[in-house]
Amino acid sequence: MRRLTLALVLTLALLGLFAAPATAAFDLRDLDVTFEAEDGSPELRAGAHPFAMSTTVGVSTEETPEGAVPEGELRDLEIMQIPGLIGSQTAVPRCNDAEFAQIVKGRPACPDETAVGYSAAEVEFKVIPPDQAGNFFHMPVYNLDPPPGAAARLGLIVLNVPVTIDLTLSRSHPYKLRAELNEIPQAILFYRSKVTLWGYPASPAHDSLRGNCLGIVNEPTPEPVSLGDCPVPLGTPEEAFLTLPRSCGEPLQTLFSATSWLGELAVGTAVTHDESGPAEIKDCGGLPFDAEAEARPTSASAASPTGLDFGIEVEDEGLIDPDERAQADVSRVEVSLPEGMTINPAAANGLEACTPAQFKAEGPDWEPDVGCPQASKLGTVEAQSPLLDEALAGELYVAAQNDNPFDSLFALYLVIRSERYGIVVKQAGRVDPDPATGQLRSTFAELPQLPFSELRVRFREGPRAPLTTPVSCGTHTATTTLTPSSGGAAIVDGSSFQITSGPDGGSCPTSPLPFAPGLTGGATDTRAGAYSPFYMRLTRSDAEQEITRFEAVLPPGVLGKIAGVGRCSDAQIAAADAAAGRAELTAPSCPASSRIGSVQAGAGVGPFPTYVDGALYLAGPYAGAPLSVAAVVPAVTGPFDLGTVVVREALQLNPDTGQAEVKAGGSIPRILEGVPLQLRDLRIALDRPGFTLNATSCDPEELKADVFGTSSQASVVDRYQATGCRDLRFRPKLTLKLKGGTKRGQFPAVRSVLRPRAGDANVGRAVVILPPSQQIENAHINNPCTRVQFAAEACPKKSILGKAKAWTPLLDEPLEGKVYFRSNGGERELPDLVADLRGQFRIVLVGFIDTRGRRIRTTFANVPDAPVSKFALNLFGGKRGLLVNNRDLCKGKKKLRTMLRLTGQNGRPYEANPVLKTSCKKGGKGKGGKKGR
Q: What domains can be seen in the chain, in order of their start residue?
């Protein structure tokens, strides 16, 4: 990149300077660039050091009575060299400013060893009569100290006027040497010039034309005249100054651009050629190519955040040795990191992206508000070239997703700069993660022909480093493929490194990895019976297996109020799954009415995962469950949008305990767009206002979860306990009525209604003892439903005793179903009374039937901790009736009373003896009915 060689181009500016005002069009003529061997033949071998490079440029002229004069007054001249032509900043000593300013007999006081060639210029002062024009002034060209912003400067004296040509690199690919000659004095008429630069200035073959040995007399020919020999002093670098491109192909163009003092623009080109016409750089097959690459993480701990040190070293003696050809440049670099060394999502926190416009704005001097933002910086770059006297520094930036030269998800921008030399080199690279494994392959292609001896890229390290190390100890190998500019065979170089410990320096991970996830959860407001957000959090360490799915059982009594909540349809869930993350954030696919909570996922290795936020929506039937929960998480973090993750879980109530159960319907993705998520922290909150209800029991309970890793399962629990249960009141009301026959031996139907009060503790246990007047008719219980039949929903018709119905403020519709006589496998003397309630969910209430003295007792020992506004249980009478009167119910003065013994979930008892109402009419007569046998 230090192709000071550019200087040769400046020669054409040659110092000349405009002609007198012209009336014709300003244009360039006689444009030519030649590369010669010492014998004068064309030198176009790739990587060769030409004996001489000559650049010729002239301006158009017009005939006047006084003779030909330039058609325009040249002000600025720029020559853009052929790509790959380079010059060395270190090959030739420099003439300092004081020496160059001291002019003696038409030439500066520069030492002869600082000469790099000579120039022949057809110029004259405007005051000189035209008949004295047409001769060429010959002047040595010296290597000067470059000013700030230039890589090199060449200088010469024309008509006692100092002329300097600044050399630097163009600021876009393919980064050509650029020579600039600016502000040419209007006092000089410039016709044309030929500047010859030497490829090896210290060669004795140039002694006769070096510095003071060049005749500067006014001659009619551009060919120089020697005044003797001026050898370079001992110790002068014997290094090549110019090197031809190291890539072959079509003939190459040198671009000329000139501006007159009137603002006229003239452009032209010259192509590489030999005696027969246009010719390309040749013999690339003869170029050597030798380079080494190394890539290794900055951490030796497994499954840990890491930076990356990547370097390429090149030893190219031919670049300096004038007797050898330079080797091919590195034109393409492809790095494949070992499997398991992947992108670290934790790096996205606070990260920004560099846009194409910002990348384009990068210049030689770093400015905080210009170019790529510092928040997009991933690392540093350092380049050393044998052609420059100091190393160049730079930065590595992350490119904007799908807004980069590759339209890819991931890309990098490399910027190397030097404010001192006015150099900026920018290169984009593509990063392709394997979609299945996350293995990374980075490619930097079409690199410019800018030789370097060392290139080192350092990705930042620390807790938010952009990469992760493999999960296992041992030897891992990164592979780098280096392709030469000559088109020859590539070099494949493997660099191995050792992972020697587990995360945080612990012992090496075992296989399979351990799995002991953590679980915490609970209500933010623990008051019994209160509505409160409920949260659950799953965590794991870097040393453990990844979490792939989970199932959870909420503590008894912790329930969600489904009533009034909308539903996210299957079509809406599918739309969310297909949406870009930012689009889903802006316009969620599921309706707000169906939102019941939030989810936050922390991904990445190291102590600071990056978190993304999502929402929980109530959805319809799924995986055999009546309802489901859809977790919709836009995977947007930092500058990246990896789409939207949708994980759907089946939502069910345990029919026996009434506990809410979340069953895994799908897996949590482990990788998105080639980025292993490394899920570390999953936080779920049911935070819809008035949705989650606390238990009314203050007994210690548990939040339970079954968590699945990549090869293991773990059951984890966290303690849950509501508070303030004694503050809850408990006073439900029960009404009982026998409907139908009242005479002895008749079978009345039973109508019972329990009405708990809103805000009271929920019923935990219920015991109902009927009056002695009622007995069980054994002849009607000869065909109970077995447990197997009940489970298969195939109970015989004769086992059906009646119907039950429960109203709850948590559901839109009541639960209702049949009441069965169900055998209990001999655990009790009589079959159980089972109410099978169905609706949005299914609840099974089991009553144990026995006798207390001469009375029938039914005990519901485990009533779910759920609010019920009304519960009705109706048993058939007549031929299907379970109860039989053992006396005439309408005779006698005492009322039939039932013993009711209730216990709230908070432990409060409630006892009552409600009247068992009958169908008796006033006067003691009741309804008739068939007698039992």
A: 4-278 (no CATH), 291-505 (2.60.40.740), 518-725 (no CATH), 728-917 (2.60.40)
